[in-house]
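Support case: zinc ion complex. Customer-provided input:
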Amino acid sequence: MSCKCEWESNEEIQYFREYLRIASVHPEPNYAPCVEFLRRQADQLQLPLAIHHPFDAANPVVVLTWQGLEPSLPAILLNSHMDVVPVFEENWTHPPFGAEMDEEGRIFARGTQDMKCVGMQYLAAIRAMKRQGVRLKRTIHISFVADEEMGGRRGMRPFVDTAEFRALNIGFGLDEGLASPTPEFPVFYAERSVWRLTFKISGTAGHGSLLLPNTAGVKLQYMLNKMMELRKQQVQRLENNPELTIGDVTTINLTRLGGGVQSNVVPPLLTAGFDCRLGLDIDHTEFEAQLQRWMTEAGGGIELEFDQQHPYVPPTATDDSNAYWLAFKRATDELGLTIRPQIFTGGTDSRYLRRVGIPALGFSPMNNTPVLLHDHDEWLSADTYLKGVQIYVKIIHNIANV
Ligand SMILES: [Zn+2]
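Agent response - structure generated as follows:
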């Protein structure tokens, strides 16, 4: 297929665009139209649908289930999130919830890449298989969750701890990846641990005309120097080894500074906030102990507060020990796709699956496509979308027959 009229009349493109037109957008996404749309999809596919509320009534988790031939085996989870990030409409050349298609077949809408595409491609792949009369060994659950873009606190994070989730008996999960501007497809098998922390630095207060000992400013300088030295080491690691991606190293960024009374008063308190993403090579206990040592060396009187302190989560194995990985890899090999396993830069719901011991891969079949998630004019081409459906047919077929 190659012309706009053919894409426009394609059933799967129509479903995709319909889903994109639902503005399930932060800060207050209304998921009810998504649930209603998914209900119609479930009817069309003749699959049972369940709705769970692991956080509250406004944040549903919708699960469609395709039962396998051996339903006692651990099942496959195909996860996507229904929410999308806000838009600055004045910066878009097309309405962000219009799902307009241009002559080249590019569909413009918030969520085309992140990640309404993937949710609909799962369903399209299952529709294609069901029409071919395919039956798979393992049960497949297709989940549509809320709140991923706000960190999953109202979605996947509480969901994995519910009895309803445990009853799904998940053995392996697929979730979102990223578009790739090259022919390669990235596959994400791990994520770094997010630590958002604030140093609350107390010191001798007094008049700005003096040279008082142990001021908050002097201690702040010490802490900033230590944190920035660490940052520099990581920048150098990346520069020295072209094999490394940003997900392989620890990132440290000063994100907030606070304090002060007026310019001629030495303040009793200054605060410095950092966003840290701990690489998989970091020992968390040792890292925190090092921060504590620096706080002491700086002169004491410093408190360490965490907004977030995510635990170490082991990566999903990408070797012979993981039969699901082998099945995934066999699918991409048979399709002639070049994949590049790597560690995700940001955070996705996969971390919550891995945290409860479920292997998970992040994969969005969008190669030769600029990375536009969270950006203005987010788009995905109809051709790439439909190729992605075929890729999922093969992958789902393989992993559900492990
Ligand atoms: Zn996403």
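The mean pLDDT is 97.

Case will auto-close in a few days if no follow-up is received.
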